[in-house]
Amino acid sequence: MEQLPPDLSGRVALVAGATRGAGRGIAVELGAAGATVWCTGRSTREHRSDYDRPETIEETAELVTAAGGRGVAVAVDHLVPAQVAALVDRIEAESGALHVLVNDVWGGERLFTRDTPLWQQDVAAGLRLLRLAVDTHLVTSAAALRLLTRQPGGLVVEMTDGPADYNAVTYRVSAFYDLAKVSVTRLAFSQAHELRPYGGTAVALTPGWLRSEMMLDGFGVTEANWRDATAVEPHFCISESPAYVGRAVTALAADPHRARWSGQGISSGQLAAAYGFTDVDGTRPDCWRYIVEVQDPGRPAGDEGYR
What we know:
By secondary structure, the chain is α/β, with parallel strands linked by helices. It starts with 11 loop residues before the first strand and ends in a 12-residue tail after the last helix. The protein contains ten helices and seven strands. 51% of the residues are buried. 41% of the residues lie in helices and 11% in strands. Strands 3-2-1-4-5-6-7 form a seven-stranded parallel sheet, with helices on both faces. The chain has a single domain (12-218, 239-292), classed as Rossmann fold, CATH 3.40.50.
């Protein structure tokens, strides 16, 4: 049975970091729900970012429009306050309001070494990671919330890696990576506090093991044959498409009682259980429960009972 998206027609969203991965999945699902989606990032058809990947914000905006919404691509470096302020001014001038802000800027994938102690890391690269992962979110919220708070009901989604309860007791990859992801979760908590008098909601949201373009390329598979990657990494069986976390955001945006989640660090799987949406294959992966119960304890891989 085809899953119909919620109705977000008339809503305006800004997805900062919409070029690929979760950002693109969120932008497209907001578009499928009828929203106008401003898609920002540094990768354009004229200029590639540090990742040197083929995905562009223009392509994302076209996918938003094809899905049923209105996509607008704007090249923005979210470390530059003047560029972000100009973006928000343009959103106000052309769209008149902002209802949803998704802070998904990351760009730090190549700036850390996994399971390597701090004193053996490249400190300059680690500090750059923090700038890209945390400063960009602060700069963007500082500008965008002035517009978002003009009417009650605004939603801020801080994209991270790992639910708050898991990250609170688990070392995540490296000192720099760990600090970045926990900081974003705390930023959602503080914004929730500040938005409450204005009727706004802020959450930190994590996907599970995401089948992003970079991840699929790394395994040499596509979305169509992604299960072939389990021959190399059996736990990839619990992975999810970018559309899944996108549907989590649209469910939040459409929920008049979303304030119940405000300040929390939650996952796409948690929200799927609450709202009833599924991934593109009709399943409902619960990656973080799987990680705690199967992957981390070293049990044999297998997603039965976790979809």
